[in-house]
Amino acid sequence: MFNSRNKRLGFFGTLLFHVVFIIVCIYSTMGSNFILPPEGIEVQYLPYESLHEIQETTLVQDNQSIENELIDQVKNVEKLIKEKEDDTVLPNDEDTVTFQDNETKEEVYISLELEQALDKLNQPQSSQELFNENMEDTIIVDNLEINEKNDGYILSDNRFAVVKIKPQYNCDESGTIVVRVWVNRQGKTIKAEAGVRGTTESASCLLNEAKIAALSTTWTPYYDAPEIQIGQITYNFYRN
User: Fold this and answer.
1) Residue 236 · residue 147 · CB < 8 Å
2) What range does the domain containing 138 cover?
3) pTM for the whole thing?
4) Is 149 exposed, middle or buried (0-12, 13-18, 19+ CB in 10 A)?
5) Is residue 83 part of a domain?
6) Which of 18, 152, 173, 226 could be 203's S-S partner, Cβ–Cβ 3.0 to 4.6 Å?
7) Number of folded domains in the chain?
8) Is residue 235 part of a domain?
9) Where are the alpha helices (DSSP H) in 88-203?
10) How far apart are CA 169 and CA 153, in angstroms?
11) How many angstroms separate the CA atoms of 76 and 29, rounded?
12) pLDDT tens digits for 29-77?
């Protein structure tokens, strides 16, 4: 009896095991054949009018950005031009008048100095005799004579006359002719004006010959002197 009971339990146990196994196999097979529904990306469609408005808005914003950049560049250029104008000072009428006044004052000042210097040159013969102590030659032409003892050659910075030209006398006038001379650094007389203060005879023949002789006179070079120095030559004419 015990054996038959065990057999029945074993039979039912085996049967139950196989049933459970079959059920598990069926469910596993069904699970492997299950296909998930397809999944996609959600797409939102906009109407044509809305899309057109978005594009126009973008273009307007781009145009505004470009215009703003151009405006900034123009402002920068204007700023640079203004700075240049501020740095550049243009002369006005007041500056011109002031410059002319200063120039006139300077010319007057120079003229006064020149006048004072020439006044000193016309002082008594003591200064002239310093340059002519060794001159003893006398030339007689047609009852006129030039006595070189009394002639004077004066130039500042102790510059002496190196070549002294004797005037050619073509008239019977006598007197003193004073010639103002302009001398450069090389010692050349570049300008002469006969008949200045101190002259006692206004005969044109004496004035012309004195001027020609003065222009041919040369002086000791002095390269540290001013570019132009003003001096004086005195020619004296006497009758026999």
Assistant:
1) yes
2) 126-239
3) 0.40
4) middle
5) no
6) 173
7) 1
8) yes
9) 93-121, 126-129
10) 19
11) 80
12) 765 555 556 666 666 655 555 555 556 666 656 667 777 777 887 777 7
